[in-house]
Amino acid sequence: MLGEYPIAGRRAAEIAASVERAVGAGELEPGQPLPPMRELAQHLGVNPNTVAAAYRTLRDRGVIETAGRRGTRVRPRPATTARVAIRTDVPEGVRDVSHGNPDTALLPSLADAFAAAGRQADERPVLYGEDAVEPELGRYARLALDADRVPEGPIAVTSGSLDAIERVLAAHLRPGDAVAMEDPGWGSLLDLVPALGLRPVPVGVDDDGPLPDDVGRALAGGARALIVTDRAQNPTGAAITAARAGALRRVLEAYPEVLLVEDDHGHGIVDLPLHPLAGATNSWAYVRSTAKAYGPDLRLAVLTGDPVTVDRVQGRQRLGPGWVSRLLQRAVLSLWTGAAVDSRAVAASYARRRDALIGELAGRGIAAYGRSGLNVWVPVPDETGAVARLLHSGWAVAPGARYRMGAGPGVRITVSTVGEGEVGVLAGAVAGAVGVGPVRRYD
Question: What is the pTM of this model?
Fold first, then answer.
């Protein structure tokens, strides 16, 4: 009965807001069908075009989806409910290896960097109308990108990698466009894309990055953009090899108009070389952030790309925040150019922890993955049960559902704070939680 639906309103905006409130409150559950437009219009006493406009707004916001003959339904993961809600509550006394944070002991001191930036700001304050990019930071970033064989392009600065990716997607795509995305992949990105009204298309991942055949199928099916992680892929730790980069470039050759977005958030914590895809298509963007190497609160990323893409991003940025604080940019420049950060030592430390856990799990007959970065991905036959049993054993891990679309179940373990003496205990707990036997690979 239509009376069972908590939907009200006379105007399209009111109807859309009513549905969003009901989804947020749990009165309309993920996957639940919505009334046909004509029936809802008759029930509310409005024109069917009004309901159609409300449903269109909700689709654009990532709240509902049209599922062919199944009608219109609430999305399995509505944009109003972030994937971070799929989490493990960590009771007191339980070791939390679910968080995805870097080891604070490996983060540099920020005091000197900000003190130097502050003195510079006192001597020459930044005023309205000045460049959005600190000139010396732009120069240094370009030199580093040149060394990594990232093609020439203008430099922009954004408030972290997700901000950059959102701005790039908004600069090129429109609601309803399909975006090829890694599966498993970054949970925040899997939230962002549908929230922009875009349609995610899953692409399988192995240790060497996105699978070329899957990318080819997604692009042949009409995907207008491809987002890839170069290194430290979250949650699997995948890193694109030279051979995989070549294979992906060959796929992209047939789709020069596809928007290519690369996320290199692993810069500074990974000891594997970069094999960029940038320039494989006409429209491209490459993002390098500081969060993992210098701390999540340093909300800064460097963006380069083709001139049209970067110009669109900067033009829209000028109409909103204007620029990322030049004080912050100067502090990051001080960290990049100073001697306080030994990125090789940081990368080696994380690698030792990953390799130790993967080795301990292998010795117990359990496959696990993590070529780079902070995390180890463990495919499991029963994700919910594994998370619950590990919690009972004193370990909180991240449920794989936060990172999956169609990929097999798994759990993500952040190794950044796992001590040498804890590795064997943790591996034993994982073995007890998932059992020993064949499990499906994450791709």
Answer: 0.84
pLDDT of residue 79: 58
Task: Kindly report the number of other CB atoms within 10 A of residue 389's CB atom.
Answer: 17
φ, ψ of residue 264 to 5 degrees: the values are: -115, 55
Could you tell me the CA-to-CA distances from 241 to 91, 209, 210, 211, 358 in Å, in that order?
A: 40, 7, 10, 12, 20
- Mind listing the pLDDT tens digit for each residue in 150-204? 999 999 999 999 999 999 999 999 988 999 999 999 999 998 998 888 889 999 9
Which pLDDT belongs to residue 4? 73
Q: Sign of the C-alpha dihedral, residues 83, 170, 214, 232?
A: negative
Handedness of CA 337, 338, 342, 347 (dihedral sign): negative
**Letter for the amino acid at 350?**
Y
Q: If you count DSSP H runs as helices and E runs as strands, how many of each does the chain have, helices first?
A: 15, 15
Q: What is the distance between the terminal CA atoms of the chain, rounded to a whole angstrom?
A: 42
Of 117, 142, 103, 108, nearest to 374 (Cα)? 103
- Tokens read off for 251: 């796929």
Residue 176 has what pLDDT? 85
Label residue 9 left, alpha or beta by phi (over 0 means left) and psi (-120 to 50 means alpha).
left
pLDDT of residue 441: 52
What burial class does residue 142 get, using C-beta atoms within 10 Å of its C-beta: 0-12 exposed, 13-18 middle, 19+ buried? Answer: middle
Which regions of the chain are under pLDDT 50?
Answer: 437-440
Q: What pLDDT shows up at residue 66?
A: 78
Measure CA 215 to chain center.
Answer: 18
Secondary structure, 3-state, 315-355: HHHHHCCCCCCHHHHHHHHHHHHCCCCCHHHHHHHHHHHHH
How is 254-323 classified by DSSP, letter by letter?
Answer: T-TTSEEEEE-TTTTT--SPP---TTSSSEEEEEEESHHHH-TT---EEEEE-HHHHHHHHHHHHHTT-S
Question: Where does residue 48 rank: exposed (0-12), middle (13-18), buried (19+ CB within 10 A)?
Answer: middle
Determine the pLDDT at residue 437: 46
> Rounded to whole angstroms, how far apart are CA atoms 295 and 332?
11
Q: What is the dihedral of CA 431, 433, 439, 441, to 10 degrees?
A: -90
Residue tagged 């030994």 (tokens): 342
Pairing status of strand 375-379 against strand 178-183: unpaired
Give the pLDDT score at 378: 97
* Residues 361, 357: Cα–Cα separation, whole Å: 6
For residue 152, the one-letter residue type is: E
